[in-house]
């Protein structure tokens, strides 16, 4: 996205354009494309929101969990024998789906593992010592540095420069965007279908998990009142690990979906802005609130797309932040309000 | 609270009974000794120390110097970071407001000076018809930069400071990013990605050798290069800032900040106008960041958006946390370590006789910072020099009496 | 030199009025381990008389503690009136047309069983909650939409049921924050060390020190609030509230967690505060404490006032006995 920004054409005059005609003309296309971005934001935002709900902690390193998920699925595809090249593989629908599913599992496994490892190595020692909230945040920032720099410097050494390093990975293209049908005026591509459909399934599954299962009830109980939940026999430590795991798995899935939409986004710094946006989405919907995160993600993706056409591509990120500030002014706890515990309402 | 208190390190019971513990150890012995000194004596003892610190780049001690880069330039950068750390410390350390977009203020300060004095800016005031004289343009732009950053602090703070802590973090982060994006995209004013060059600097000490004065980037050779001069200038500004911030700390303002940090609701119920003082903290922090930005623009004579990435905000925060939030001396040390350590390793091939690849170590600095932060938060979350705030303008005698009684009791 | 238990309140068993015991040198004896952090920080005592000799005189202390006493002349006039105050949260009615007065110079007890709305009532008075309908009149003027710090400046101060001190500040600094409610120095004054700033600093510190002496924790002035014992922290909260120069001091269960001897000495302190010219509102569920110290009692049940009168009237009121006491009152002590 940052790449797009830099390459974006600059508006000549006036300083900020205001192109309503372009918005109206492309409204449906923008909405659909916004929903694909929004799906990714939403899935990543769930990780922020769950951890915040349970620990009252901004897991700053979650963007790195996402970033490593991108590398995870990429590595799995490489192991399966796919070589990075500009050209797309044409495998037929069935095999494409199979390979995508394997890549998805790979990305989710890496992200889930990193998220749980992060909890173990970085946050648990702090919890044991009853550290201040700021200490958690600083640790998260530290962990974020470590993970980024790992991919930046260490990973290329371990893999003979096949993974990581300063530059983005050459994309492995399993799916080439092809228009399947037209909805209103928007061309719906296969990539769009995969992203929105997968995100929808994952979101529904997560929502069911949180609201319908025993583990989900445990998470909500700890989020609402850790002390009572512990007294009622819920193991807080186990719930915390579970929370990180779910967040990580969804971030890994989001990572695969994101690389389908932005094939050359696999870079060590590629999680940062996306992570911030996803966090914005979580706050927008009401942090700690699962459905809020999903809603916030979709809303942010769509609004961002409208904004970039209205004002120019280079203002895309500004739109996201201004939207966030504007919403918080009106609703200081986000659109759906806080509290994971009340998310079923 | 890392040191044990049960075994007084110096052995005498008296030392375990002194006033502000719990720590003990050399640091506290020093602190207690310092606190007991009268103000004038403190200045008398402190001045040679400050002079020594100021002369570091001139003395250029082999143990301290940097091989890969000019030591003076490194110290100049340290000066700017120290100012930033002091400013951010007001916001984060004193008032407890988590600001992740502090780099935005730094950028506003730098760009204000650049826009007013760079020939490539449309609003350049140093050329024909401008109201800034070429020689004094930087100095004249400095207060303007401070005023504008203060204003931006006010603009950012007034809607956002009503938000709770975690929300403030993300909103300020957004602000930092917005400022950078504005700088990147408002090409007509900021030069966009190309940036603005030939920013003004004080033209002082013009000689045969340095035709543009000692502050010019051209004066880069020798021990007394421009970096050293900028470093000295920043020391002067740091001292002024320290006195000002110290005055605030030992007043109703500083107490309000700490009260807000400790328990905002209780503070408000005790009559503290919390919003007003949070806003003040923001504005003061912003202005100090603006001073630092103005220094940066003048020293480098060039600004462009890449220098104002959000990652810098995070580094600034690291300086504050590393040194010890709330402690002015601590955050200066934090700033020093953040700037100095990577430069120390840059270009070094051996350390204490052990061959190392210093440049690579310097390259890995974020990795090491990351590890250091994580380890620090587990073992010493209060920072290297933990805070021992003094919030009263008077009342030293009470604290000294406490120590006297403690000694008497122990004896 | 009298041996004084630095645990503070426990001294009440030996001294009738420990807070007046200013001639005592507060030395630090072995300390109970009821401090937060298990006595991690060793206590340090200040010999106050050494620093401020004038504070050895209880009259001087009392004078400094209550500088507004002169204006408190018309005892008996209502200072705070709750007029038909109703407060609902969602569908829940926490307060239902609550009406009562607090009169100048009295100690009013507000009692009721748990969940009766005592703390809600208290929060409505101090501006934490705004009434859904009805008015809170203070000194004749409605609190209306005033901010919480403005209400403090009007002259209502409070303590907290669960202690909320500024734990990283020293005891003295905590109280000085209270005195700041009456100060007007802001950033410019502090930066330039204006004359007013210097005057306010001096005055605030002296008054804070006197207040600490008054409540009996003067010896712990330089200790961080979190290192004080539980009883000392409760007293420090009272000192901090008094520092805001309130016309009305509201105490929210100040004796919670105290043993009988500590309660006894706290009652003495509350009476002494009243004698110094303050009006006191006391929220308590310990009937014995309330009956012993208050001039008048208001009883709440399910958000309604069910009785309002002297301690004798209230404790013999059948509705109160039914609702609150149920059993002979010594069972609630």
Key terms:
heterotrimer, A: 345 residues, mainly alpha, ABC transporter involved in vitamin B12 uptake, BtuC, two-stranded antiparallel sheet, 13 helices, disordered N terminus, B: 411 residues, 17 helices
Total separate domains of chain C: 2
Structural class of chain C: alpha/beta
The chain pair with the largest interface is: B-C, 52 and 57 residues
The tally of helices of chain C reads 12
Percent of residues of chain B in helical segments? 55-70%
Rg of chain B, rounded, reads 22 Å
Spell out the helices and strands of chain B N to C.
Answer: HHHHHHHHEHHHHEHHEEHHH
Q: How would a textbook summarize the main sheet of chain C?
A: 6 strands, mixed
Q: How many strand segments of chain B? A: 4
- If you average the pLDDT of chain B, what whole number results? 83
Can you describe this structure?
The complex is a heterotrimer of chains A (345), B (411) and C (333). Chain A contains 13 helices and two strands. Chain A is mainly α and 345 residues long. Chain A has one domain (2-330): ABC transporter involved in vitamin B12 uptake, BtuC (Orthogonal Bundle), CATH 1.10.3470. In chain A, a hairpin with a 2-residue loop joins strand 1 (179-183) and strand 2. In chain A, 53% of the residues are buried. Chain B is an all-alpha fold. Chain B has a domain at 67-310. In chain B, 64% of the residues lie in helices and 2% in strands. Chain B contains 17 helices and four strands. In chain B, a hairpin with a 2-residue loop joins strand 3 (350-351) and strand 4 (354-355). In chain B, helix 5 packs parallel to helix 7 (165-185). Chain C has 333 residues and is α/β, with parallel strands linked by helices. Chain C folds into two domains: 9-65 and 164-243, no CATH class; 78-154 and 286-332, Rossmann fold. Helices cover 34% and strands 19% of the residues of chain C. Chain C contains twelve helices and ten strands. Chain C has helices at residues 48-51, 58-65, 118-125, 148-154, 171-179, 187-191, 195-215, 230-243, 260-275, 287-293, 311-316, 318-325; strands at residues 78-89, 92-103, 107-111, 133-138, 141-142, 156-158, 248-252, 279-283, 296-301, 304-309. In chain C, strands 6-7-8-3-9-10 form a six-stranded mixed sheet, sandwiched between helices. Chain C has a four-stranded antiparallel sheet with strand order 2-1-4-5, covered by helices on one side. In chain C, a hairpin with a 2-residue loop joins strand 9 (296-301) and strand 10. Chain C is globular. Residues 1-41 and 327-333 of chain C have low confidence and may be disordered. At the B-C interface, helix 9, helix 10, helix 11, helix 12 and helix 17 of B face helix 1, helix 4, helix 5, helix 6 and helix 7 of C.
């Amino acid at each position: 996205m940052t790449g797009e920004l830099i390459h974006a054409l600059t508006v000549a005059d006036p300083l900020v354009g205001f192109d309503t005609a372009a918005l109206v003309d492309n409204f449906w296309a923008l909405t659909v494309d916004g929903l694909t971005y929004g799906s990714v934001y939403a899935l990543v935002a769930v990780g922020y929101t769950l951890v915040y709900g349970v620990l009252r902690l901004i897991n700053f390193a979650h963007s790195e969990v996402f970033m490593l998920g991108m590398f995870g699925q990429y590595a799995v595809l490489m192991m399966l024998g796919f070589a990075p090249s500009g050209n797309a593989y044409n495998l037929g629908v069935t095999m494409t789906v199979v390979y995508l599913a394997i890549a998805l599992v790979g990305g989710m496994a890496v992200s889930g593992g990193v998220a749980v490892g992060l909890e173990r190595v970085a946050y648990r020692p702090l919890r044991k010592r009853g550290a201040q909230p700021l200490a958690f945040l600083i640790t998260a920032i530290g962990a974020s540095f470590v993970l980024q720099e790992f991919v930046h410097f260490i990973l290329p050494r371990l893999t003979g420069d096949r993974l990581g390093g300063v530059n983005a990975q050459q994309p492995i293209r399993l799916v080439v965007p092809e228009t399947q049908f037209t909805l209103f005026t928007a061309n719906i591509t296969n990539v769009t279908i995969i992203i929105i459909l997968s995100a929808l399934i994952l979101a529904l599954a997560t929502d069911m998990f949180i609201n319908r299962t025993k583990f989900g009830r445990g998470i909500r109980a700890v989020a609402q009142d850790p002390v009572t939940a512990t007294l009622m026999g819920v193991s807080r430590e186990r719930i915390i690990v579970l929370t990180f795991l779910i967040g990580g798995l969804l971030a890994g899935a989001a990572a695969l979906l994101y690389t389908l939409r932005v094939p050359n986004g696999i870079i060590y710094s590629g999680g940062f802005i996306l992570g911030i946006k996803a966090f914005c989405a979580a706050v927008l919907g009401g942090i700690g609130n699962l459905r809020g995160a999903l809603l916030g993600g979709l809303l942010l993706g769509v609004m961002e797309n409208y904004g970039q056409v209205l004002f120019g591509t280079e203002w895309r990120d500004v739109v996201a932040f201004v939207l966030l500030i504007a919403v918080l002014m009106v609703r200081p706890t986000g659109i759906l309000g806080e509290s994971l515990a009340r998310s079923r309402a | 609270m890392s040191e044990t208190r049960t075994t007084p390190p110096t052995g005498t019971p008296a030392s375990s009974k002194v006033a502000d513990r719990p720590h003990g150890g050399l640091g506290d012995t020093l602190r207690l000794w310092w606190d007991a000194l009268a103000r004038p004596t403190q200045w008398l003892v402190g001045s040679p120390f400050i002079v020594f610190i100021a002369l570091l780049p001139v003395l250029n001690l082999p143990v301290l110097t940097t091989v890969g880069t000019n030591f003076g330039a490194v110290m100049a950068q340290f000066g700017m970071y120290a100012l930033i750390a002091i400013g951010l410390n007001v916001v984060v350390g004193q008032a407890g407001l988590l600001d992740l977009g502090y780099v935005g203020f730094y950028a506003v300060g730098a760009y204000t000076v650049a826009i007013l004095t760079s020939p490539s800016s449309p609003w350049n005031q140093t050329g024909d018809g401008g109201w800034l004289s070429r020689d004094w343009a930087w100095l004249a732009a400095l207060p303007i930069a401070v005023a504008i950053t203060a204003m931006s602090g006010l603009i950012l703070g007034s809607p956002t400071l009503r938000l709770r802590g975690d929300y403030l973090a993300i909103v300020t982060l957004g602000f930092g990013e917005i400022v950078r994006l504005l700088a990147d995209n408002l090409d007509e004013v900021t030069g966009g990605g190309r940036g603005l060059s030939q920013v003004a600097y004080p033209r002082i000490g013009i000689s045969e050798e340095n035709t543009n004065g000692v502050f010019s980037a051209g004066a880069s050779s020798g021990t007394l290069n421009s970096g050293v001069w900028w470093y000295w200038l920043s020391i002067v500004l740091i001292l002024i800032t320290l006195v000002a911030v110290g005055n605030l700390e030992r007043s109703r303002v500083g107490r309000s900040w700490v009260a807000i940090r400790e328990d905002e609701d209780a503070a408000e119920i005790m009559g503290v106008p919390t919003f007003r003082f949070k806003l003040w903290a923001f504005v003061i922090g912003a202005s100090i960041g603006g001073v630092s930005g103005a220094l940066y623009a003048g020293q480098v004579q060039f600004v462009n958006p890449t220098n104002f990435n959000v990652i810098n905000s995070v580094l600034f925060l690291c300086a504050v946390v590393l040194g010890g939030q709330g402690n002015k001396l601590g955050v200066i040390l934090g700033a020093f370590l953040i700037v100095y350590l990577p430069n120390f390793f840059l270009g070094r091939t051996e350390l204490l006789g052990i061959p190392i690849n210093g440049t690579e170590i310097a390259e890995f600095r974020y990795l090491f910072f990351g590890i250091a932060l994580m380890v620090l938060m587990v073992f010493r979350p209060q920072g290297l020099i933990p805070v021992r705030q003094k919030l009263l303008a008077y009342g030293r005698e009470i604290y000294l009496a406490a120590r006297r009684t403690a000694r008497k009791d122990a004896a | 030199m009298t041996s004084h238990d630095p645990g503070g309140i426990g001294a009440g068993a030996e001294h009738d009025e420990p807070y007046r015991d200013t001639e005592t040198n507060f030395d630090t004896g072995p300390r109970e381990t009821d401090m937060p952090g298990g006595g991690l920080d060793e206590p340090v005592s200040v010999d106050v008389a050494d620093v401020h000799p004038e504070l050895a005189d209880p009259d001087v202390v009392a004078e400094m503690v209550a500088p507004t006493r002169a204006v408190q002349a018309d005892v008996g006039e209502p200072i705070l009136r709750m007029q038909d105050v109703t407060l609902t949260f969602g569908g829940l009615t926490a307060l239902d047309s609550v009406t009562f007065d607090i009169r100048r110079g009295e100690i009013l007890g507000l009692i009721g069983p748990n969940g009766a709305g005592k703390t809600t009532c208290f929060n409505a008075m101090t501006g934490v909650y705004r009434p859904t309908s009805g008015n809170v009149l203070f000194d004749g003027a409605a609190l209306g939409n005033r901010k919480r710090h403005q209400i403090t400046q009007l002259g209502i101060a409070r303590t907290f049921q669960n202690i909320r001190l500024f734990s990283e500040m020293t005891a003295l600094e905590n109280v000085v924050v209270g005195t700041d409610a009456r100060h007007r120095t802001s950033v410019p004054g502090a930066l330039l060390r204006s004359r007013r700033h210097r005057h306010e600093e001096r005055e605030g510190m002296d008054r804070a020190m006197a207040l600490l002496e008054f409540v009996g924790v003067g010896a712990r002035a330089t200790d961080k609030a979190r290192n004080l014992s539980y009883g000392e922290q409760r007293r420090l909260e009272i000192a901090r509230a008094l520092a805001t120069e309130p016309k009305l001091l509201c105490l929210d269960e100040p004796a919670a967690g105290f043993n009988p001897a500590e309660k006894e000495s706290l009652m003495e302190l509350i009476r002494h505060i009243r004698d110094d010219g303050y009006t006191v509102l006391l929220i308590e569920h310990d009937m014995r404490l309330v009956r012993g110290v208050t001039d008048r009692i208001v009883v709440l049940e399910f958000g309604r006032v069910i009785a309002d009168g002297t301690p004798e009237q209230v404790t013999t009121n059948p509705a109160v006995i039914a609702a609150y006491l149920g059993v002979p009152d010594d069972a609630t002590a």
